[in-house]
Amino acid sequence: MRIISGQFKSRHLKATPPPGTRPTSDKLRETLFNILGETVRGCTFLDGCAGVGAIGIEAISRGASMVIFVDQSRKATAMIRENLKSLGIAHGYKILEMDLARALTVCARDGIAFDIAFIDPPYDREQVYKDALDRPSVSAEGLLILEHSKRSPLPGSSGKLKKVRTLQQGDSVLSF
């Protein structure tokens, strides 16, 4: 796994994910950030179900002002810390070692609203998708992006959220 673009372009990440973790492919990550473009610069970004942290680190590399990494796995959060340390990233992030629902509650309590929230849970964890749609924690103009299986489509709307775009690569779908 490598950083696609930005300050840390071409730098490699430790990418031995913990069991049960399915990292977003380099190709899909590149497509995602090509779509997001300059909106990442200066934003508050959520990397939910972060795994090794590749999405959030890519956001930092492209100029996000704050990235919140969330993963309930101790091994995953240790790998995120290791990757951040190896790149010399000392600030502009926070790591929450807890389940996503609890992390969204903590962020809401602390007044954190995300400009971009990317959530990529294990595809079979339907409750995580429900929690993300029920409490998105995105700002009024924010964007929630969910990665899911093409065999498990997400609803066209949920509360104040409306799906505006989908992108499929292989078995993976990004719903914006």
Question: How would you characterize this protein structure?
Answer:
With 176 residues, the protein is an alpha/beta fold. The protein has one domain (26-175): Vaccinia Virus protein VP39 (Rossmann fold, 3-Layer(aba) Sandwich), CATH 3.40.50.150. Helix content is 29%, strand content 25%. The protein is built from five helices and nine strands. It has a seven-stranded mixed β-sheet with strand order 3-2-1-4-5-9-8, covered by helices on one side.
Report the radius of gyration as a whole number of Å.
15 Å
CATH homolog superfamily = Vaccinia Virus protein VP39
Structural class: alpha/beta
Strand content: 25-35%
State the CATH class. Alpha Beta
Global geometry:
globular
Percentage of residues assigned to helices: 25-40%
Low-confidence stretches: none
Count of domain modules: 1
For the largest beta-sheet, the strand count, sense and barrel status come to:
7 strands, mixed
Q: Mean pLDDT, rounded to whole units?
A: 92
Looking at the structure, the CATH topology is Rossmann fold
SSE pattern: HEHEHEHEHEEEEE
List keywords for this structure.
176 residues, alpha/beta, Rossmann fold, seven-stranded mixed sheet, two-stranded antiparallel ribbon, 9 strands, 25% strand
SSE map:
Elements lengths: L25 H11 L7 E5 L5 H8 L4 E5 L3 H13 L6 E4 L3 H10 L4 E6 L6 H9 L3 E12 L7 E2 L2 E2 L3 E4 L2 E4 L1
Parallel strand pairs: 1-2, 1-4, 2-3, 4-5
Antiparallel strand pairs: 5-9, 6-7, 8-9
Provide a concise account of the structure shown.
The protein has helices spanning 26-36, 54-61, 74-86, 100-109, 126-134, and strands at residues 44-48, 66-70, 93-96, 114-119, 138-149, 157-158, 161-162, 166-169, 172-175.
